[in-house]
Amino acid sequence: MKLKYLAVLAIFAALFFVACGGGGEEESTQPESVTIQVTQNDNYYGATPDNATNPPQWNVNAGGQVSIELMNNGTVEHNWAVIKLNSDMPDAFDSAANADLILKETGLVAAGESFRESFFAPSEPGEYLVICTVAGHYPSMQGRLVVN
Ligand SMILES: [Cu+2]
User: Fold this and answer.
1) Tens digits of residue pLDDT in 61-118
2) Which residue of 9, 43, 58, 109 pairs with 141 in a disulfide if CB–CB is 3.0 to 4.6 A?
3) 52 DSSP assignment
4) What are the b/e assignments for 83-100, b being 16+ CB within 10 Å?
5) Going from the N-terminus, what domains does the chain have, and what CATH number goes with each?
6) From the CA of 79, how far away is ligand 1's center (Å)?
7) How far is the CA of 137 from the centre of ligand 1 (A)?
8) Distance 28 CA to ligand 1 centre (A)
9) What's the whole-model pTM score?
């Protein structure tokens, strides 16, 4: 009985040490997490329907955690898909035939709905093309994920 009590005490002492002692150096090397907000419309991201010439940009840290908040203000469903660097993009994106070009994609967001999730940014810095993979929405619906 007494031994059990001592064991519990030892566990608490160990936990206290882990929580309070050291580790500062490790924390400072972690890339900072960011939250990005994406507004979806029919059929473009952000405020204006000129994504092809003036794509909205979302900045994140290489390898860092990203919380994405999507708001679909449109009347049809949309998503948000990051394309692999240096991909040869087709004129019209086919979500089945071109699936191998996708690095990361959110689920489809229904009209009027919002969606939120977390993921880790690519570890390789660069300017990643982001598109909506719903048929016919690319190239008019696109943006850039800027990984620093
Ligand atoms: Cu779309």
Assistant:
1) 999 999 999 999 999 999 999 999 999 999 999 999 999 999 999 999 999 999 999 9
2) 43
3) T
4) beeeeeeeeebebeebee
5) 31-147 (2.60.40.420)
6) 6
7) 5
8) 38
9) 0.81
According to the model, what pLDDT value does residue 27 have? 57
What is the CA(141)–ligand 1 centre distance, in A? 6
Question: Per the omega criterion (within 30 degrees of 0), is the bond before 61 cis?
Answer: no
Ligand 1 centroid to 125 CA: how many Å?
Answer: 26
| Side chain identity at residue 22, one-letter code | G
CB 132 within 8 A of CB 141: yes
How far is the C-alpha of 137 from the C-alpha of 148, rounded, in Å?
27
Cα 62 to middle of ligand 1, angstroms: 26
Q: One-letter amino acid identity for 148?
A: N
